Structures are given as C-alpha cells and as structure tokens.
Amino acid sequence: MPFCEQLVQAGRELLGSGLTVETWGNISCRDPVTGNVYLTPSAMAYDRCTAADMVVFAADGTQIDGRRRPSVEAAMHLSVYRARGDVQAILHTHRVYSTVFGCLGEKIPPIIDEAAQALGGPVPVTAYALPGSEQLARNCVDALGALGMACLLRSHGAVCCGVDMAGTFKTARVLEMTAQIYYMARTIGTPEVLPPDKVDWMRDFALNRYRQ
C-alpha cells in the first residue's frame, strides 16, 4: 500500500479505535528505502483526509511534498526517526488512561505479560514542554532511548512506535490496556510489577520466537 494511503487508513483506525478525539494526535511512517517520512496534516479530521492531504519530508527534514501544513509535532516525529533506525511508524495518541499517568508524571510499569512483550520495561514520562516545540522533540527522544517503544508526554498523551504501522497500533493498544489495568488495580491494592528478568525473557520471546 502506498505510504500516503497507509496514513489515510491509519487515521481512520486511530479515530475509530478511540485512541484520540477530534483532530488531536498525529501519525507518521517512514519509507525504509528512501528514508522519506510521511506525516498527517495539522488540524484536519482523520475521516476526511485523503492521500493528497499528507505531507512528505526527506530524511534531512526538508518538506518535499504536500499542500497542507504538517502536524505541529513534525519535529518530534523526525527526531525519533533520526535517533531510531528500527522505528518505521509512529502514533501520537490522546487516550484517557495513559494520559492520566502522564499528568501525574508517573511511569507505567510492566504489570501484565502483554506489557512485557509489547512494551518491554516501564513506560517513562517526559518532562513537560510546549506542543510542537524542539524541546518536546528532544524530551521524547530521550525518554524512548535506544529500545523504548512508547513514552508518555507530560500532560500530553503518548508516543508509540513500531517496526510497521500494525506494530505501532499494537504498542498503542497494549499501552492503554496496561494503563487502565494499572489504574484499576491501584484502586483496590498494590499491583505487583513483573521481575526484570521475566520482562526481558518475554520481550525477547515476542520479538524473536512468537511467530508462525
């Protein structure tokens, strides 16, 4: 599927899945051959976007195609791609439970097997920075580090990554499910965090052995 069409489909899935509301959030993907980055436009309804509305950047960050203004978080997406060669798709979501912990400044620990497999270790929270700022981009890159697949933006949703668009949506769904379970478990007790060695085993299993 052409990359612009992939973003159109992803935008409708993002909205339909409840991972964001209205026009908030943003989506990108990268062509692993050319390094070009494809990004959703700013302030446009996902269910009305077409392939012609998408914006394209070269690997160096130069806009090379698109008649629309890109998402205000273009710098964040481009910075993550520059830092992480393994990431080929990014979702910035605005889901309720993960945002709760972002507002509290609390990381989400791996308390369920699915989180260990899809997210690895604890999902960190960035320091606060204004939307669309270079500081927010730097904070996001720092929080993800070399291996992280998700981070919480302080008071501003979450950033989820993957090796492809399907993997990125999986990251986002598992993050929100884990956040909700963690929230609910804390209302009646103290959730037990999975041991680091077990988390490492399950993450390796998911990456290297859980397939047909």
From TrEMBL:
Molecular function per GO: aldehyde-lyase activity; metal ion binding
Q: Which organism is it from?
A: Neobittarella massiliensis
Keyword set, alphabetical order? Lyase, Metal-binding
Q: Which Gene Ontology BP annotations are present?
A: pentose catabolic process
Identification of the protein by name: Class II aldolase/adducin family protein
Its domain of life reads Bacteria
| Membrane-spanning ranges | none
Q: InterPro entries annotated for this entry?
A: Aldolase_class_II_sugar_metab, Aldolase_II/adducin_N, Aldolase_II/adducin_N_sf
